[in-house]
Amino acid sequence: MPQKILLRLNNNNPCNNKTNAICKRVALCFSIHQLTTGLIFPLFMQLHLQHIIPFPLRDRLASRHSDIWGREMLWSAGDKVQIIAPSGTGKTTLVHVLWNLRHDYAGTMQYDGTEVRQISPVRLAEMRQQELAVVFQDLRLFPKLTGRENIELKRNMSRKPFCSSRDVEHMAERLGVANVLHQTANTCSYGEQQRIAIIRALVQPFSWLIMDEPFSHLDKQNTAIASQLITEACHARGAGFVLTDLDGNTTLICNKTFQL
Amino acid sequence: MNSIGNIKPFLQKVIRSGVGRWRFFAATLGLLVALVIILLSLQLYLNFNQLLHGKANESETAEFLVISKEVTAENQSKKNESYFLPEEIALLGKQPFADRVGEISSTNFIVTISSFSNAFPFYTDAYFESVPDEFIDIKTEDWSWKQGQVNIPVIIPSFFLELYNTGMAMSQENLPRLSLEALQAIPLRVNIKHSGGTAEFVAHVAGTTDRLNSVLVPEAFMQYANKAYGYQESKPPTRLVLKTLDAADPALQSFLVANSYTTNSDKTKLNKARIIVNWIAGVVGIIGLIMLLFGMLVFTLFIQLTIAASRMDIVLLQTLGASPRQLSGYLMGMFMPVYGAMVMIALLVLSVLQYGIHQLLLQKQLLVSPWLSVYTLAAAALWLLLIWFVNKRTITNYLKAG
Lengths: 260, 402
Prior knowledge:
The complex is a heterodimer of chains A (260) and B (402).
Chain A: H1 2-12, H2 17-37, E1 47-54, H3 58-61, E2 72-75, E3 80-84, H4 91-98, E4 105-111, E5 114-115, H5 121-130, E6 132-135, H6 147-155, H7 165-175, H8 190-202, E7 208-212, H9 220-237, E8 240-245, E9 256-259
Parallel strand pairs in A: 3-8, 3-9, 6-7, 7-8
Antiparallel strand pairs in A: 1-2, 1-4, 4-5
Helix pairs in contact in A: 1-2, 6-8
Chain B: H1 8-14, H2 21-58, E1 63-69, H3 86-94, E2 98-106, E3 110-115, E4 123-126, E5 129-130, E6 151-157, H4 158-171, H5 180-185, E7 188-194, E8 197-209, H6 219-229, E9 239-244, H7 250-258, E10 261-263, H8 270-309, H9 311-320, H10 324-363, H11 374-401
Parallel strand pairs in B: 6-8
Antiparallel strand pairs in B: 1-9, 1-10, 2-5, 2-9, 3-4, 3-7, 7-8
Helix pairs in contact in B: 2-8, 2-10, 2-11, 8-11, 10-11
C-alpha cells in the first residue's frame, strides 16, 4: 500500500519539485502510520469536475456566469475550496454531485481519475468510510438515535475506528454539546444537531471534507470553535475541504474561492 | 472494514422489522409445518425403501424369479411361442432391475425314475432341468458331474419333501416319513430312453431348494445327456431365471406385463404396495413443496417489507458509507437464525416421529432405522442453503434498488 501511494503521487500529483519533496515526506509519514495502525490513509485524492451542468439548472445557467458549472475544475490534495453560492444557484446540488448522490447532469465527475458513475457500491462505501467525509445542509442524522449513537454509528463503520470515544467526548465538550449527546437527535436544537453532524464527519479518516453550510445555525463563538476543529482535523489528515457558503464570511482559511 | 459487529447495536435501532410480531410468528409456523411435511414425506419414502431392501439384506441374497411366457387360449396350441429367443433374453438382461439372467435347460429325452428297493417302491416319468451353478443356492461338493460318472446329484423343490411327509406318507400306512438326511441316502434309478436303447444312472438328492420349482441336475450332465440321448436338436429355453436385487421394482412388473411374461413368484406383488406408498409420498411431498414455496415467498415479502419500512434509514446508512456487505449481513442476520431454528425444530420433530415409527414397527418384526436418514438431513441442509441464496439475492437486489 505505501508503494501504491507513492506511485500515485509520482504519476498524478501535479506538485512542483519543492512541494513534491514535501508531499513525499508526508506520504512517508502516513505510510508509517498505516503500517503501525493498519489504517488505510487515502492521500492526494483529486476531485475533477469536467463541464458539469445539472439538468434542472440548465436553463438558468444559460443566462448567468458560474465559476463551477460548465467549467473544468481540478482540486488536488489539501486544497481548501470555498464556494460562495447565493440561494438557488445549486449549492446543495453541487454537494450531492460531489458526494455521488445524483447523476442528473451533463459532464463528468471523477474521484482520482475514476468517473463516479463507474464506482461500484462496495468501493463507494469504502471511499465514504476512508476518503470522503460530509456535513449535509439538512444534517441527515437519525432522529431516533441519540447524538452519541449517531456519531458512534459513523465512527464504528470502519473495523478499526479512526478516533476513540474519548476523542468524541473531547470534540463534543469543545463544541458545547457533551451535555446533549444522550438525547435523541430529534430533541436537540438545530444548532446542536449541526455540531453533532460536524463531529460525526470528523471521526473518520478522509482526504476531502465536503460541507454544505455547516455553520448556518451556529453563533460566532461556536462557528469559530467548529472552524478550529475542522482545520485541525484536515491538518492532521493532510486533507482538503470543499465548503459551500451563502456569503463567503467564513472563519475557515481557504486557498481557492469560487462563485457558483 | 465492513465489519457489522461494531454497528449492529445501532442498526438494530435504525432498521425495524417491517412485519408485525404475530404475523411473523404465524408465517414462521406455516413455513415450519411445510418443512416438516416435505422432510417427513422424504423420510417415509426412505423408510419404506429400507423395509424392502432390509428384507433382501436380511436373507443376504438377491431374489430369483422364474420367468416364462404366458399361456393363453390363443397360443396354447403353439408350442414354439413358448421359447425365449436370444434377443429376448438379451433384452431382459439389459433391464436396470436385472442383475443376471440364466437359461433353464430341460431334458430332450424321456426319463423315468424308480426305486431300487422293494421296501420303498415307486416309479414315475420325470424330466430334469438345469441352470448355471450361480443360480443355485445349494453349496455342496456333491454338486458336480463328469462324463462317465454314473451318479447324478439332483436338487428337488422343498415342497416335494413337505408334500410327501405331510400328505403321501401320512395317507399310506406302509410309507415312512423321511428326513432330508434320510432322503439323501436313498439311491434312485434313472433310466433314459433313447434311440439306441436305455441308459441307466443312479441319482441321489443333493439338497432341496425354495428358489426354483424344478428337479435340477448339474448343467454338465444336462449338456452331455441332451447331446447323447436327445431325440431332437436342442431348443431354446422356455423358462428363464432372473436374479434381481428388487423383485418389487415397478419397472420389473411393467416389463413382464408388456412382454406377456409370467413369473411364479408372488414377490412382485409387493410393487403394488410400493406404488401406493410412492404415490402417497409423492402427493404429500408435492403439498409440502407447494407450502414451502409459498412460505419462502411470504418470507421474501417480509424481507422486502422490512427494507421498505426502513428504506429512508437504509438509504441514509448507504449515504453515510455503510457498505452493502454490512447492510446485507445485518438483514440476513435478522432472518437466517429464524430459518436455522426452523430446521433444528423440524429435525427434532422428525427425529421423535422416526423413533416412534421405529418402535412401532419393531413390534411387528419390521426394522427401520431409529435415526433420520442422511438424505433427510442433506435435504434440510439443502433447503437452508436455498433459502440463504434466495434471501441474499432478494436483499442484494433491494439494496441496489434503494
